[in-house]
Specification:
With 345 residues, the chain is of the alpha+beta class. Helix content is 37%, strand content 29%. It comes from marine sediment metagenome.
């Protein structure tokens, strides 16, 4: 019940010397091989209802660019495909991980050298250049030979499956390089936007509901969207980092107001894991109406960390919920200001 999409090749050489055949070969094996393998087995796994797992083989080159253009491009693609696949398979019987190893004791270089000669149009180093780079190829082979024992790597993969670990980073010594890449992203963003004047004159809008009758004031930089028909939403507005929903349902006969946060946490299990209730308390609206406030942290589709503020009241046999979500770095007081603007008519 475990699928390992593990085939891999590489084509090296200056970018200007590489042909489309080089790209087709490497992307065809490294990226499309993963897609083809998943396409063949995924439906069978889902239909089996048994516990299954898919391991996609990427590389540290899927997180930081390396010298081989086709190789690193294909491995970045495997990471992106795996992230999408993990979200698509969330809350099913199929788990997903992507392994991003460093050097491992394999025969990769010799295998690629042999296979590339069978591929028409794939770039081959001319004899003089081959002799020139021979020491570099020997260095690569030495790095691989001194790399991680495949049996140890297999044990790490098994541990990842048993603990539902998505990113299998077998060589933690590369973490500074991964962090440096994201530091560069942040630095470039700040440079690009450092002289821009951000207008903070955010006004407010009022959402008015007729049955049951209530008002809610929210910032006018939130964009209103159609309510999700899969839920009990009656209102939905959002911007990057803040999603506001209002839900109205019939109040369950036996439900108490103090049960609402736990109920919401249970409902989140459909789309999230690692759900943690940070706070759960009785409170009041400005007009004295009893309410319940809950703050929950979780991982949406098992990957993205979010923070949720939920404010619930019971009114006219209806359960009214103001549900605001954003990243874990969001200021919860901003969320509270929106939620506590709820006003019954």
């Amino acid at each position: 019940n475990i699928l390992c999409n593990n085939a891999g090749v590489s084509s090296t050489g200056p970018l200007r010397k590489l042909s489309l055949e080089d790209w087709d070969w490497v992307l065809g094996v490294n990226l499309y091989g993963v897609i083809y393998g998943t396409n063949v087995f995924l439906n069978r796994m889902l239909e089996s209802k048994e516990e299954c797992y898919i391991i996609n083989n990427s590389s540290i080159a899927g997180l930081i660019a390396v010298e081989s253009g086709p190789y690193t491009t294909s491995k970045f693609g495997v990471v992106a495909f795996s992230e999408f696949l993990a979200q698509d398979c969330f809350n099913t019987n199929v788990g997903v991980s992507v392994i991003c190893p460093g050097f491992a004791d394999t025969n990769f270089v010799n295998n690629v050298r042999t296979l590339s000669k069978l591929q028409p149009g794939v770039f081959q180093l001319p004899p003089k250049m081959l002799e020139f780079v021979k020491p570099l190829l020997e260095n690569m082979e030495k790095r691989l030979k001194l790399g991680m024992d495949p049996d140890i790597m297999a044990e790490k993969v098994i541990k990842a499956i048993e603990n539902d670990i998505f990113f299998i980073i077998t060589h933690p010594e590369y973490m500074p390089f991964f962090k440096a890449r994201f530091d560069r992203i942040e630095e470039d963003m700040l440079k690009l936007n450092e002289n821009e004047i951000v207008e903070l004159n955010v006004g407010s809008k009022v959402y008015e509901n007729m049955s049951p009758p209530f008002l809610l004031t929210y910032p006018d930089d939130l964009i209103e969207f159609n309510p999700d028909p899969r839920t009990k939403q009656i209102f939905n507005a959002s911007k990057v980092g803040c999603d506001l929903q209002i839900l109205v349902t019939r109040k369950p006969a036996e439900m108490k107001l103090e049960d609402t946060t736990m109920t919401i946490a249970e409902d989140l299990k459909l789309t999230a894991n690692e759900i943690k209730i940070i706070s759960d308390q009785q409170t009041e609206l400005s007009d004295g109406t009893r309410a319940n406030e809950g703050i929950i942290e979780c991982n949406i589709t098992g990957i993205y960390k979010e923070k949720h503020l939920n404010l619930s009241i019971f009114h006219e046999e209806k359960w009214i919920r103001v549900f605001i979500s954003g990243s874990r770095t969001n200021d919860i007081e901003v969320f509270k200001k929106i939620a506590y603007s709820l006003e019954l008519k």
